[in-house]
Design brief:
The chain is mainly α. Among the domains are: about 120 residues, no CATH class; about 120 residues, no CATH class. The protein contains 14 helices and 2 strands, in the order βααβαααααααααααα. Strands 1-2 form a two-stranded parallel ribbon. The longest helix is centred in the N-terminal third of the chain and has 28 residues. It is flat.
Length: about 350
């Protein structure tokens, strides 16, 4: 069995404690220590960097070939293909990629990183297929949120079929885009929907996604997607709530610029209180992801309030000195938490 450094330290401390308390013999302790191996952290880091590089290069290649060169449009016009034909062609290619990805997954279930890299081709081909299908069906005045809804359903289905967290992430992002576009369409082109501007609507959306992760965690067939849903939902909620603390429920950019930022003090106060309550809950229940993300946004909240209220009144050198000190403090505390022995 292979363990990373942190897991190995926890196991080793547990074995040492049992040995010192005479709960196990020295022979058994020696046997337990030899029952696991330390995973090569460098290999894991290289694999992660390779995944990031592969995703980046894939997106750049997609942009260069499809957006810049527009080679699909050139071929379509040269051979006289309709948009329906292109949509059908890329649907077939996407289905073929899904088939190969599923077969690859069955043959090498432990090669998660390389399998996720392969899934990039599925994401891109599905996007092209949906684009041409909807272009052939919808008119210029149609609801442009429909392609995003179709993309959400398609990516969600493929993510569950392939058990892919990467494709599931794309599905959630597509759904966020659909929510923004659909509420804009429902409001008749207004920036308010049911009395909510964009930041408030996206805050609500992030909260729903975040809460839905608890439901997924209790459904055995979907629990493998609960963690990524939890993280993305929390991130969407915090980003939108941070934006809401600056703009409030205001939908007129020109009017907002004419107001003093102190006009929105209660939104900033509400965001600060929510962060504090979430931090207390995270520390009490040992929720590492919630704790770390709330700490980042708590610092971001402090700096945002500084720029809003004190930027023109405070010495800039003092500000950046405090900024450096705060980051040092957070880094020190993070190291202490990491090295703290498990209870």
């Amino acid at each position: 069995m292979e363990l990373d450094k942190k897991e190995a330290d926890i196991v080793n401390k547990a074995i040492q404690s049992w040995e010192e308390d005479a709960r196990i013999s020295k022979e058994l302790a020696h046997e337990l220590r030899n029952s696991y191996q330390l995973r090569n952290a460098n290999v894991d880091a290289i694999a992660i960097y390779a995944l990031i590089s592969a995703i980046s290069c894939g997106l750049l290649a997609f942009g260069a070939l499809v957006i810049d060169e527009k080679w699909i449009e050139l071929l379509r016009k040269r051979w006289g293909f309709s948009e329906n034909i292109v949509g059908i062609g890329f649907t077939f290619i996407a289905a073929l990629f899904v088939f190969f990805a599923k077969r690859r997954q069955n043959k090498a279930p432990n090669a998660r990183i390389s399998n996720e890299v392969y899934n990039i081709t599925i994401i891109l081909t599905v996007a092209i297929a949906i684009t041409y299908w909807t272009r052939s069906v919808l008119s210029e005045n149609s609801n442009y949120a429909i392609p995003l809804l179709i993309a959400t359903l398609a990516y969600g289905f493929v993510a569950v079929l392939l058990r892919s967290t990467l494709i599931w992430t794309v599905a959630i992002i597509s759904m966020a885009g659909w929510w923004g576009a659909q509420t804009y369409f429902w409001s008749g082109g207004s920036f308010r929907f049911l009395g909510m501007n964009y930041p408030l609507r996206m805050t609500l959306f992030g909260l729903i996604v975040w809460a839905f992760s608890w439901v997924m965690d209790r459904v055995k067939s979907l629990e493998y997607l609960a963690e990524v849903t939890y993280t993305i939902g929390l991130l969407l909620f915090l980003i939108a709530a941070w934006t809401l603390s600056m703009f409030g429920n205001y939908d007129d950019l020109t009017g907002w610029q004419a107001l003093k930022q102190s006009h929105f003090w209660y939104w900033a106060l509400g965001f600060t209180i929510v962060l504090i309550l979430m931090l207390v809950y995270a520390f009490q229940n040992k929720q590492d992801t919630l704790r770390d993300m709330c700490l980042v946004f708590f610092l971001l909240n402090i700096y945002t309030r500084y720029f809003e209220y004190f930027w023109d009144r405070t010495n800039k050198g003092l500000f950046f000195a405090l900024l450096a000190l705060s980051f040092w403090f957070v880094g020190k505390k993070a190291e202490q938490w990491r090295n703290r022995p498990a209870a």
